[in-house]
Amino acid sequence: MTRLYFHSLLLALLTGFLFKLGGRSVEPAVFEKAVPYPDTAIPICGATQTGGIPQNILNQPVTLRTNIGAYPFPTSTRSPKAQAFFEQGMAHLHGYQLVEAVRSFHEALRHDSTMAMAYVGLSRAYVQMEFQPYAAARNAAEQAKALVTYASEREKEHIDLRFAQLKALESVGDLKALDEYRQRLKTALKHFPADAELWLLSGNAYEESALGRGQGSSPASIAIYEKVLQIAPDHPAAHHYLIHAYEGMTDYEKALYHGEAYARLSPRLPHALHMYAHDLMKTGKVDEAIAQMKAADAIERELYESAPYKAEYDWHHGHNIALLALSYQYQGRLKEAEALARESYAMGYPTDTNFLYYRKKSLPELLFVQGRYQEILPIAQSLIIAKTPAERLLGHYFLGLLQLQQQNLSAAQKSHKAAEAQLALIKPVYPTTRLAGFVKPYPKFLAALIRLHHTTTDAAGLAEIRAFQKAARDQYGPDGWIEALFQLEMIADAALKGPNTGFAKEAVQVLADHDPAYPGTHYLQAKLAQLNGDRKTADQQRELAVKGWSKADKEFTQRIF
């Protein structure tokens, strides 16, 4: 099944890029008018805002690293070391390893203080590490501009583009500024059609705002990134962004192809391994996904010890261990999952604390799966009085789940309303533009479970549950996809315990459509078959569940079987 998500609407709103994919000439980008930034957009790869990092850490010297990917980007510098550190910075920038990107660009400047492109790189990295008004990013751009006499004509284009993009960034809703930035890209590509980095920026510009960095890559951007691979074969960033584009179309096999390429080309870049894991997980290769995420985790921990700096300064670490914990949960390895969830829960978030909730959700979710309800209660209570609305929303959500376990429907309904009230407090303005979309599924899931816990679920109730199931299945990002799996599992399990056998069959099928390889899918298919008196199918499905959970904790299998 192929779903075209929001960004694919740009296909109708942009006249598009025309490429030389055979023997025809290349035509640079032609953008139509920008469209408004959606207030319900959901982050693709975790909560990515980071910042608040001490300057002394960002200025630490670094050494040249190997196996992080080759990023050919000629500059005017006469220093081979400056060039090498600059390209290392670009590898980290495209791999979302922001602290290392900044440190590498600083190191390039130590070898050549006149290297304007290193300041451009710093400006691009700082955009992802701070919020409006982007003071550090603009200052770095100004320093690049001050060195323009040392820059080539191509580098001057990049400097000019930096200011055009910053103008669009300083007001995310300024569609005129976004249009101007896209037109500057078009002009730059006319002048330098063989510049791979300009094409990458153009692919990013197909996203919904000037903040695009490849995570929101749309179907419209695919040909652009393929063009990059023609200019610079095996360019890691092109493969990276193609993964995101195909994930957005739920074409996980093609995403897997580019994930393997990205990991192969950048075997020591944590995010490259993590991206490969995304689609290994979604295509039933969970053992391999875990291996990739564990390798990424080991590289990161080694880096934090040698640098040294706190893991919380690297947004990617929290995201990687969260997805690794979910993958362990998939296999019933709850002890390993819980260790990572507790680490995440204890981590700080050095930027806008509105996104701190991302660190807090994994632990109570795992405790709930294990039936350790008394341990969840104090966590829920502490979240309810937290400073940010997203944390408070989670608190009411988990309290509602506990109340459902006690069959206290009226109390659960009150918790649901309280969660919805916190959701309403999250304003659709930058920098929390995407936050509402990210946390919105939690109260909706609670509402669906409340419907299922009624003695009888009427047509309106079933329609609400089905709407949630569809929304859950539309999650293509890694966290959303696997969290949806466990939510669909809970719905199917609850339905099997209710009187509506027709909906129970339907709910189990929705789970199977989402992931037919999941052991929990086989387990519930066995329960459904047993309910229908089909002993043979029940035994077959149970055997598949046992096999799938062969690495599960003993306590888990004893409780399940």
Automatic annotation (TrEMBL):
InterPro entries: TPR-like_helical_dom_sf, TPR_rpt. It comes from the Bacteria. Gene3D superfamilies: Tetratricopeptide repeat domain. This is Tetratricopeptide repeat-containing protein. It comes from Nibrella viscosa.
